[in-house]
Amino acid sequence: MALIVHKYGGTSMGSTERIKNVAKRVAKWHDAGHQIVVVPSAMSGETNRLLGLAKEISEQPDPRELDMLASTGEQASVALLAMALQAIGKQAVSYAGWQVPIKTDSSYTKARIRSIDDAKVRRDLDAGKVVIITGFQGVNDDGDITTLGRGGSDTSAVAVAAALKAAECLIYTDVDGVYTTDPRVVSEARRLKTVTFEEMLEMASLGSKVLQIRSVEFAGNYKMPTRVLSSLTDPLMPLEEESVSGTLISFEEDTKMEQATITGIAFNRDETKITVLGVPDRPGIAYQILGAVADANIEVDMIIQNQSVDGKTDFTFTVPRGEYTKAMDVLNDKVKANIGAASITGDAKVSKVSVVGVGMRSHVGIASQMFRTLSEEGINIQMISTSEIKISVLIDEKYMELAVRALHKAFGLENA
Amino acid sequence: MALIVHKYGGTSMGSTERIKNVAKRVAKWHDAGHQIVVVPSAMSGETNRLLGLAKEISEQPDPRELDMLASTGEQASVALLAMALQAIGKQAVSYAGWQVPIKTDSSYTKARIRSIDDAKVRRDLDAGKVVIITGFQGVNDDGDITTLGRGGSDTSAVAVAAALKAAECLIYTDVDGVYTTDPRVVSEARRLKTVTFEEMLEMASLGSKVLQIRSVEFAGNYKMPTRVLSSLTDPLMPLEEESVSGTLISFEEDTKMEQATITGIAFNRDETKITVLGVPDRPGIAYQILGAVADANIEVDMIIQNQSVDGKTDFTFTVPRGEYTKAMDVLNDKVKANIGAASITGDAKVSKVSVVGVGMRSHVGIASQMFRTLSEEGINIQMISTSEIKISVLIDEKYMELAVRALHKAFGLENA
């Protein structure tokens, strides 16, 4: 007897047959006495089809008009799902973001949610209806449609759940949860029953792309229990079984602390490393280097600066592989001469491997165990970066899988 | 320097290339100093695709959800057209019906427009923007999306033009105007430069399906000069030429009266005739027969009742061919015994031919010339129905083309 929000991704909504399965699953939860709000994505392929049309018309389409266009995919989805529920005897009603309304700022194509009015939704839930709300979109103060950007439906679902003070937000997707690492790299990888919000943030940003990172932030801010689970199971599987499947992003660290120190091994194959050598070690130098890179809209991840020797230092940072050439050009053209650097070198074939876990806060020696494991495999560490709940190293890309497998085993992640 | 509304049908919006051509045409009008509002349909095929998805999900989809679904087609169109205009340097902004807002009643899938707020549109026009508004749809008092039914974009365009007191509403379509009759039947058929609102109503309802009939009614109620013209011409053709092309539905009868008495020959191949024989001639009998037919949602067109003989009469009416079997079943099952009719007969192979023209109001002898022409061709007239500006006859379908050609010639319609 709880209020629960379901979110279904584009694959789950990919055909009318699949939409009927979603309806069966929702009806099962409703039959059990729960109040259900559903936030579906557009049918898979639809958003790309629409953006493809825009691209045929204009190289740089106006963001306001792009949002007007792209939001139609989710609007069609909610109507189809309402019909599918009605066809199996459920009362259901669909709303576009502007109808709720879900108010956002005016940053078209990447808007941020400001407020959600729950009056209509509560009225319908109290009347016994399933309420279906478009993901990915809202409306600004001018009455223009806005979208939240790619993967925004996850954020919509968590935000709606928070606004309604739902008991849980269930994110149905095509994977069955969050794993200790990618099962394609380590076959012993194990599904996590729970993961903390902070770990999930580190796992998501490090490449375990199960949930859009903004939705995890939202879940964290509102302490909304959010479960990632599979929509590919039998829609009529017993509710007791389904309601504990997948991975729960939890906010109760206490239970967690007694478990393993390390939660998972994340990795990102797609890194490059750039080093500015022989930089005069004076105040403002980091800004002069990274400011120019940021101005070119290049995302920088790890950053280290060496101890200065004779008034000179080296400055190293990583950027995604797609931005490598652009970053090198910026440095050579705009930065090198200005700051009087000796030279600029780079390596486009590096990868990042991270161990993540809130448990490491209270356990010493995680870093040394990580470095020993890599050393025993003969893997050289090029850069190190640490936070409270993760340690990341940059290594030659050819050792990435080996490093992930070795660390997964060294920290005992294959055992439940 | 006038405010002009353009409406483009689904074929004109059928691909991104065609949308670019629409943008060129609109820009040409805007360049000439006019304020332009555009009402485009969904891309051709899109509405059918969406309704097909609905049908896969439910035999009888909820009308509210159908409107939520179907309205997305036009929303995508307006955004794409705005992008196409921006890509060639025009300022443009798109609005869905609910954003204007275009207020309607709550008759989902066949809503009627109640009011149109012109504030936003005027503000944008005054700022030099082309304003693009979704056809086919509006919003009711509950904030639900409604649609006006098939062909509703014509009605939207005329209604928007009326609300803005536009100088003219241009309906761009895949024909280049209204003809004296169907050129596929009579090769000498001639395009009409003007046609009155009442003639257009008769032409439309009689089968010259160029414009949705509700849009013609709207044009009539608001005396909105409306021009039907082709979108298949060169989008950059000289404005002076384009602005007098097609057919203007006018409201100035005086100029018209001096022209030909007959404007055109309309026809409908798709008729059937049903006769209830030996009906007791007492009050209420027509209602007992037609009420049952209307209750079954069957549209009745021509109706005649013969002079009563010995207290008995015959009652004849026409229904569309697709409804013939249903109508016969209703009469045999529910009506015949109740009213004590002798028998019910029908003919499923008849057609209707009509001469139409406001000129006939002031000219006698139109009917006799029509009947003489048909008689000279040996065509038997089965039913006759007249109004102030048209005379319709029902004939054997095999003579339909012959009748249309003979009448077109007899009334001299091939000469300008």
UniProtKB/TrEMBL annotation, chains A, B:
Pfam families found in the cross-reference section: AA_kinase, ACT_9
Top-level lineage group: Bacteria
Keyword annotations: Amino-acid biosynthesis, ATP-binding, Kinase, Lysine biosynthesis, Nucleotide-binding, Transferase
Enzyme class: transferase
EC number of this enzyme: 2.7.2.4
Pathway listed: Amino-acid biosynthesis; L-lysine biosynthesis via DAP pathway; (S)-tetrahydrodipicolinate from L-aspartate: step 1/4; Amino-acid biosynthesis; L-methionine biosynthesis via de novo pathway; L-homoserine from L-aspartate: step 1/3; Amino-acid biosynthesis; L-threonine biosynthesis; L-threonine from L-aspartate: step 1/5
GO molecular function, one term: aspartate kinase activity
Entries under InterPro entries matching the protein: AceGlu_kinase-like_sf, ACT-like_dom_sf, ACT_Aspartokinase, ACT_dom, AKii-LysC-BS, Asp/Glu/Uridylate_kinase, Asp_kin_monofn, Asp_kinase
PROSITE patterns registered for this protein in UniProt: ACT, ASPARTOKINASE
Substrates-to-products reaction catalysed: L-aspartate + ATP = 4-phospho-L-aspartate + ADP
Occurrences of domain ACT (ranges): 274-358
Family (UniProt): Belongs to the aspartokinase family.
Name of the protein this chain belongs to: Aspartokinase
Species this chain originates from: Paraherbaspirillum soli
